[in-house]
Inverse folding.
């Protein structure tokens, strides 16, 4: 659904087009974007000793992990200047095909990020963790927010009772956007996981019947 011309203008990296591969943050390839460096996580590393407190949310968003998933040996991006995080925007700033739609949420499975759009213009973005593949693959296509629940628990047989805060239901077959752990790679049973800050923001920004486009 993204046009080639759009894609040439939408990635906000100065040197590097797509840094993150789907499989994991440790699979970073190509050149490192300006203003960042690669850091290998060591035993005992916490956000508190890797970044200033005011940068924690951005570090998690950029690397698609929550504070509980800094895995030893994996590589993450950190700002060269701890007092300033360079501008970072991994998703399209504009989507022509959504120009006439008041609100749209795009899920980009290939880069594991979402974008929230108002008449095709990006308002905010964040990381995701989609289905881990096979029978748990997150489906692509056009969906609509059917209903919302601030507090919700999974009804699926495999993860019955698992918390799904700020749930946005996309289908009667059990696909949702919701807050859950973020390990930096596809890991869900098909739902689209979000950081708490993003799940909460999407929950209150979105409306019933808003379009959700899941694309590769």
């Amino acid at each position: 659904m993204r046009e080639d011309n759009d894609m040439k203008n939408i990635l906000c990296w100065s040197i590097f087009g797509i840094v993150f591969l789907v499989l994991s943050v440790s699979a970073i390839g190509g050149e490192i974007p300006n203003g960042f460096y690669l850091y290998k996580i060591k035993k005992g590393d916490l956000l508190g000793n890797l970044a200033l407190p005011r940068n924690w949310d951005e570090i998690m968003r950029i690397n698609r992990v929550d504070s509980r998933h800094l895995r030893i040996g994996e590589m993450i991006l950190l700002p060269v200047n701890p007092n300033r995080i360079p501008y970072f925007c991994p998703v399209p700033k504009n989507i022509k095909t959504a120009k006439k739609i008041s609100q749209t949420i795009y899920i980009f499975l290939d880069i594991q990020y979402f974008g929230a759009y108002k008449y095709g213009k990006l308002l905010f973005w964040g990381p995701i963790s989609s289905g881990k593949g096979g029978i748990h693959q997150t489906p692509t296509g056009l969906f609509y927010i059917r209903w919302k629940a601030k507090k919700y628990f999974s009804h699926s047989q495999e993860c019955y009772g698992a918390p799904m805060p700020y749930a946005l239901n996309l289908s009667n077959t059990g696909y949702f956007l919701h807050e859950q752990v973020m390990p930096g790679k596809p890991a869900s049973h098909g739902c689209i996981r979000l950081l708490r800050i993003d799940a909460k923001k999407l929950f209150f920004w979105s409306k019933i019947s808003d379009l959700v486009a899941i694309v590769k």
